[in-house]
Amino acid sequence: MSATARDHWCDLAVIGSGIAGFAASIFATNRQIATAQVGNTGAIAYTTGYLDLLGSLYADPNPLVNPWQGLAHLRQEEPHHPLSRLPVELIRQAFNEFTTFVTNAGIGYTPPGDENITALTPVGTGKQTLCLPTTMAAGPLALAARRAAVIVDFKGLKGFSGRQVVANLRHCWPELCSARLTFPGMARGEIYPEVMARALEVAGTRRELADQLRQAAAGAGCVGLPAVLGMHHPDRVHQELEELSGLTIFEIPTMPPSVPGIRLREMFEQLFPQRGLTLIPQQKVDRLSFTDDGPLLELADNYGPVTIRAKAVLLATGRFLSGGLVADRNRISESLLQLPVSQPAERAEWYRQQYTDRRGHPIHRAGIEVDDSCRPVDRNGRVVDPRLFAAGVILAHQDWIRGRCGAGIAIATAFRAVAAAEQLLRR
Amino acid sequence: MTDTPTIHFKEQALALLPAGANFDACLTCGLCSSGCPASGIENMDPRKFIRMAMLGMDRELSTTPWVWCCTQCKRCQHVCPMSIDISQLVFLARSNWPRELKPAGIVRSCELIQATDSTSAMGLPPEDFVFVVADVLEEVRSSQPAFAHLQAPMDKKGAHFFVNQNSREPMNEPDEMVPLWKIFDLVGADWTYSSKGWAAENFCMFAGDETAWYEVIKKRVAAVEELGCRVWLNTECGHSYYTMWQAISRFGLEVSFELESLISYYARWIREGLLPVNSDWNRDGIKFTVQDPCMIVRKAYGESIAEDMRFVVRTLVGEENFIDMQPNRSANYCCGGGGGFLQAGMTDHRRTYGKRKFDQIAATGAAYVLTPCHNCHSQMEDIGHHYGGSYGVVHFWSLICLSLGILGENERTYLGPDLLALLA
């Protein structure tokens, strides 16, 4: 009596709410596919906000300047890599469509360019990325121009130190220094980027912070801050702070949980239902089965059982953190359908001796096998079910951390999978 | 002085884990703490609580007053990738405190609920409730000619709706009951109050007193069954719904009626044309936002009731005059009025907690917050005054009747000068 069942129908069910899942929902709704999406918090709140396509080729210790040329090398070196199996033009289209959508939805992103941008990490090292939030865009420019700048941190904020950023960059950025401020209204105890970002949605907080920034800049003209410039209107908050302070301001990602990821998640959670997508946030699918009528998803929320009946389903369930893959003592398995997982023959081969081994660890390349339409295949290479697609880092033969290619894989394979699903649905 | 017994939190935490979850998977990422308005109060936060449990710091956890500052709103679980539910541990800790050490205000409210058949946390006995309802009804009938026929049925057997009522109205502001009666009249609802089990509050759950919680619900269930009503209709209150709904499954109660929220019925009656409200009255473009009570949104119905609520608000105030708080729906922050915090006598902590809600409201720039929850209502008013806000807090029923042009002069307690000017 206190559990009420609810049933949803759709054409495409997306399982997962990381970058791949949200990208799939963007592409599907843009194509007027009736879509339902379900997935719990997952790892999106841990993202820097950067959208990497390909930042490193495994054989080369140097940062990759041109990711598009890098894809050609990747194709030769790693033909099974998910990005090697997609036309470059398709990957470009996918990035364009994703960044355009997100920008129009209120979180500005730089469009994909021809070359990677050297962006800043929370500890003041550089990393290669293709697109970044517009609130962060002035940082790499200031770095490239070696412009006099102050990195500001805040009393009580853990995991972000202006001194550390400066210490790591000073050798190449001499006119960089740091300052510590007290965030308006948060003088005591531990403070969190999420809370600061929400507080900066309030005009009074922005005015107080702008005053402090002006003083801290001490004539430098340019200030780097942890990524806390608003949660729902970051570009507006950023712009207003620049106007109020007369400074060029840029954000630097923080340690997780980080604001840029929460921004994306909360934006998607609001926008998709408005666009007619059925979104069931913060829940995991308990069971996925294939009936004669189509894929059937079963789950439960606080209020009781929920079912989703679809015509096609897209797995974007991620790896170990998000639960798409699970590992016991000896084997790695896929959690929803027990799909075959390509993996090292024995546990002893999961990791190499040295944590920092340049070749990476074989376990990171475990994942499910798909065909060129992103349909999971069995051990004999046969399609498991023509109504089943998969996208994102659950796919085998890639090491997204080492390759700096997580968002690239997520966005590009989601694009491919949705296109293939669309073909099936239109048939 | 009585000692607080020590709970073995790790053992309890492991037993309470949902299927498939485990603490090994906790990355200590801090999404729970980062998203919790109680973080930092009493030098505690949800992540610290879990880590201390894993480290066996049972004595500290068994005695930390933080458990009375956590409102058990479950936002930590909502944002946790591993779905770890800290609020259950907090409930356990509350239960474990000796009665005489628990916040007296919460304990007293639970005692009063048990003291009469009303189950009223303000101790209003059945005969007084019956008297107040009759008295107010008589007054309305004689002073408002359009409502000379108004009904407020009491103990009507076989009525479709069994309607509960927060004690604050009959006790302190009885005229605030009238707008709801008018709405029922307008839609032709077959409803009744009950002289027994009518009250819409339950502090026994917040007191961590499971036995008392069960007893209160048993009394309320019996009252509905006695009248043979089909629907127990929870009016504008959050935790009275949750404590009833949750108790039915928790204690394995068999009931022959449905539990529904008035919000869903507002939405349904508007959709069906029975409540012909619109926003024409809002000619000055007064802005409104809405507060999602945790108890009925995140902790119970989820997004569906949040959508119903927004449909009602948009219709009432105009699409362009509605500004959502951020975050919202199931991700909304607890205001800090829940969990018995308002009754706990920890005013400074409660206001510290409420700062985040205040910021959320301030960021909307809205002149009014609508909420179907009495605790949210009181807390948002208090933090508004405390932090120098200029917004008002209104019940749905007030605005519905305002829109319909039937809000009586004595029913305008929560209207600010801008709204009153429209009625002049």
Could you explain how this protein is built, in words?
The complex is a heterodimer of chains A (427) and B (424). By secondary structure, chain A is an alpha/beta fold. Chain A contains 11 helices and 19 strands. Chain A has 2 domains: 6-106 and 262-426, FAD/NAD(P)-binding domain; 122-252, Rossmann fold, CATH 3.40.50. In chain A, strands 10-3-2-14-19 form a 5-stranded parallel beta sheet, covered by helices on one side. In chain A, a hairpin with a 2-residue loop joins strand 11 and strand 12 (294-301). In chain A, helix 1 packs parallel to helix 11 (406-426), helix 3 (88-104) crosses helix 11 and helix 7 packs across helix 8 (234-245). The mean pLDDT of chain A is 95. By secondary structure, chain B is mainly alpha-helical. Chain B folds into 3 domains: 9-101, no CATH class; 107-268, no CATH class; 272-423, no CATH class. In chain B, 47% of the residues lie in helices and 5% in strands. Chain B has helices at 9-16, 31-34, 46-54, 58-63, 75-79, 86-96, 104-115, 126-143, 168-172, 178-187, 203-206, 210-227, 239-250, 262-271, 297-301, 303-317, 347-364, 374-386, 396-404, 417-423; strands at 161-163, 191-192, 231-234, 258-261, 288-290, 368-370, 392-394. Chain B is globular and about 70 Å long. Chain A binds chain B through residues 1-3, 6, 40-43, 45-46, 185, 188-190, 192-195, 198-199, 201-202, 204-205, 231-232, 256-257, 266, 269-270, 273, 279-282, 284, 301-303, 321-323, and chain B through 20, 25, 27, 29-31, 33-35, 39-40, 43, 45, 78-81, 83, 245-246, 248-249, 255, 258-259, 298-304, 307, 324, 326-331, 355-356, 359-360, 362-363.
Number of strands of chain A: 19
Question: End-to-end span of chain A in angstroms?
Answer: 42 Å
Report the uncertain regions of chain A: none
Number of helices of chain B: 20
The level of helicity of chain B is 40-55%
Biggest interface reads: A-B, 43 and 46 residues
- Alpha-beta content class of chain B: mainly alpha
Mean of the pLDDT scores of chain A? 95
Instruction: Please describe the biggest sheet of chain B, giving its number of strands, its sense, and whether it closes into a barrel.
Output: 4 strands, parallel
In CATH, the topology of the largest domain in chain A is named FAD/NAD(P)-binding domain
**Number of DSSP E strands of chain B:** 7
CATH architecture of the largest domain in chain A: 3-Layer(bba) Sandwich
Widest sheet: strand ordering of chain A = 10-3-2-14-19
Shape of chain B: globular
